[in-house]
Design a protein that fits this description.
Layout: H1 3-19, E1 30-32, E2 41-44, H2 46-52, H3 56-70, E3 74-80, E4 83-88, H4 90-102, E5 117-121, H5 133-151, E6 155-162, H6 167-179, H7 185-188, H8 192-216, H9 221-227, H10 229-242, H11 246-270, E7 276-279, H12 280-296, E8 301-302, E9 308-311, E10 319-323, H13 331-345, E11 350-356, H14 360-372, E12 381-386, E13 389-390, H15 406-424, H16 432-452, E14 460-461, H17 464-467, H18 475-494, H19 511-521, H20 523-533, H21 536-556, H22 565-588
Parallel strand pairs: 5-6, 5-11, 6-7, 11-12, 13-14
Antiparallel strand pairs: 1-2, 2-4, 3-4, 8-9, 9-10
Helix pairs in contact: 1-3, 4-19, 5-20, 6-8, 6-10, 8-9, 8-11, 12-13, 13-14, 15-16, 18-21, 18-22, 19-21, 19-22, 20-21, 21-22
Length: 597
């Protein structure tokens, strides 16, 4: 049982014994004691004053007396106005350290047969362009969220829905057919997703030129956009695709295969994976069937042009189109079909969609529509809504070719990592292969940590150079601290210093040692809170605080040269456990930590 639970239970008992009144445990407010005061846990006494009918100071003193007499873990207390600060005994913290040492998977709760099954959908790329910086945030958040939910004892299925059909896909296909001259990844040496993305940009360039020409010929802007030959060609291609025209299907399959091969390389580099991949080209058919069923049952309605709509005005929203007049589907149709198929495939208890906040309305509508169609899971969907990510030079647009591709960004990060590491002399004595792998580990650690340390709900600015810094709240700073700890332990082994992992203290540990043990003890709480709030940032910032505290300790308290064997052993065991928590915490973020650096 954690010290917080012990204290909470004992305060409930103290109130009953001191003031003859029972209270709910939820009334007990606990905080970490502020650094300027002596203590470990602070109790807010004000809620108990109306029960004690005494001053806050007297109430705090009476509760403090009771706890000191009846709770062995409480060694002393002090009162500051209406706050009761408890000092927890050193023996308790040493017992915590020993339990951390003996726990192979400290902070991690493993799933059981009765655990809930959570499905996390992330990535959701389109097959008309490569993954870009926005996709990176999505993939990193989705993967980390899955790992954190697993660490909280859930069964997790990670899924990806590939948007492999629709007008945007046909734009790339049409442009390649018109201007591609038979280019392939093989005969150009261009990665498949980049090649297809090139023709998505080409379509937009030609389309804009056609619009300008039509406007010069007297067309209105609206008519020019509708009648431009490229747009008409792409729409015709979409109709042919839905009619399963063999030539169109063959082109679609060929270009998609190029993109999938490119995606696989990027996913592997980012270190993310999926348990199941769904394809919109398959799921949209389920969605169409559900929409037609909803129409037949009077849930939806049809307009004169044959398009099918949902009336959501009773829910405070508007009208939502589900099938166009030509029978083609929209994203919402596909998501209805995908949701149905997933719940047929898996006994899901919770469905989480990792999608940017520009789609908040979409998922609000999806939940309502699934509920209207009679699916019980409709109300239980959770949209993990996150903010946009930008570079210092501003916003990115795929069709204009101003997007920073994920592959280019990672390659650039590796170059920055190499340059910074060489300037600081961090990897002297490494073989070229060892150095290359470490550059990559540092680069991806920097990228992932910089993105994941930010509250997911917030928009963020990604600065590659700032993220690589070996000081401050960065991935490399944390990686370097872990490598430092491993170096200390290797040196201890080289000097034949044997670690006694079961620490027994005859002398009282110092403040810095106790502070580190307290921080380590809070790791399971951080994991639990990150799982409950769906926030990898809580893990990132917890690990940073632990690392910051360890570095202060390292500079102030000698470890290997400490002459007192008992204290030296304590410091080595603390360092080892700090390293263990760093490695576990960073793994939850999808980040590797190097043994040497």
């Amino acid at each position: 049982m954690s010290i917080e639970l012990i204290i909470r239970e004992q305060i409930v008992e103290a109130i009953e014994k001191c003031y003859q009144q029972k209270i709910e445990p939820s009334l007990v407010q606990l905080q970490n004691t502020r650094k300027e005061f002596d203590g470990d846990i602070t109790i807010v006494v004000f809620p108990f004053v109306r029960i004690s009918k005494k001053s806050p100071e007297q109430t705090a003193s009476e509760i403090g007396d009771y706890l000191q007499q009846n709770v062995t873990e409480v060694s002393s207390y002090n009162v500051v106005k209406g706050f009761l600060n408890l000092v927890i005994s050193a023996d308790y913290w040493i017992s915590i350290l020993n339990s951390v040492t003996s726990s192979e998977k400290y902070g991690i709760t493993e799933a059981t047969e009765s655990s809930k099954l959570v499905m996390v959908e992330y990535s959701s790329p389109n097959t008309n362009k490569p993954l870009h910086l926005g996709h990176i945030r999505n993939n990193l958040l989705g993967f980390s969220l899955g790992e954190i939910l697993k660490a909280n004892g859930n069964k997790v299925v990670k899924t990806n829905i590939v948007n492999d059909r629709g007008i945007h896909i046909c734009k790339s296909m049409y442009a390649w057919k018109m201007w591609g001259n038979g280019q392939t990844p093989e005969n150009t040496g261009i990665k498949g997703d980049h090649l297809v993305g090139k023709y998505y940009v080409k379509f937009d360039q030609e389309y804009k030129q056609e619009i300008a020409t039509l406007i010069e010929q007297g067309e209105t802007k609206e008519n020019a956009e509708q009648n431009a030959p490229s747009m008409q060609g792409a729409r015709e291609m979409l109709l042919k695709w839905e009619a399963k025209d063999p030539e169109t299907i063959q082109l679609w399959e060929t270009m998609n295969s190029w993109v999938y091969a490119g995606f696989d390389v990027t996913y592997k580099e980012l270190g993310v994976d999926f348990d199941k991949i769904y394809y919109e080209s398959e799921t949209y058919l389920y969605g169409k069937d559900e929409v037609l069923r909803g129409l037949a049952e009077g849930v939806f309605y049809q307009k004169e042009d044959s398009s099918i709509w949902a009336d959501l005005t009773a829910e405070g929203l508007d009208q939502k189109i589900l099938l166009r007049s030509d029978g083609t589907s929209v994203y919402m149709t596909q998501d209805i079909g995908t949701a149905k198929e997933r719940y047929q495939d898996y006994p899901i208890d919770k469905m989480i969609y990792v999608v940017g906040n520009e789609q908040n309305y979409h998922f609000q509508v999806l939940s309502i529509l699934l509920d209207k169609l009679g699916f019980e899971f409709g109300k239980g969907l959770h949209h993990f809504s996150y903010g946009m990510v930008e570079l210092p030079q501003g916003k990115m647009k795929s069709r204009e070719g101003t997007v920073v591709d994920a592959d280019d960004l990672v390659a650039g990060m590796i170059e920055v990592s190499k340059k910074t590491s060489e300037e600081l002399g961090k990897l002297e004595g490494y073989t070229p292969e060892q150095a290359a792998e470490t550059y990559r580990m540092i680069a991806l650690g920097a990228l992932k940590y910089f993105i994941l340390k930010v509250d997911p709900k917030k928009n963020m600015l990604f600065n590659p150079e700032e993220s690589i810094d070996f000081n401050g709240n960065t991935g490399p700073f944390i990686q370097y601290t872990y490598a430092r700890i491993r170096s200390i332990l290797r040196k201890a082994a080289d000097r034949k210093i044997e670690l006694n992992h079961t620490v027994v203290m005859n002398s009282v540990p110092g403040t810095k040692e106790l502070q580190l043990i307290k921080l380590v003890s809070q790791f399971p709480v951080a994991v639990k809170e990150a799982g409950e709030s769906y926030s990898p940032a809580l893990i990132a910032n917890y690990v940073y605080e632990l690392v910051k505290e360890f570095n202060q300790f390292y500079h102030e308290a000698p470890i290997l040269i400490e002459e007192n064997e008992e204290i030296r052993n304590l410091r080595l065991v603390i360092a080892e456990n700090v390293g263990k928590v760093i490695k576990t915490g960073m793994k939850l973020l999808g980040i590797d930590v190097p043994e040497r650096m």
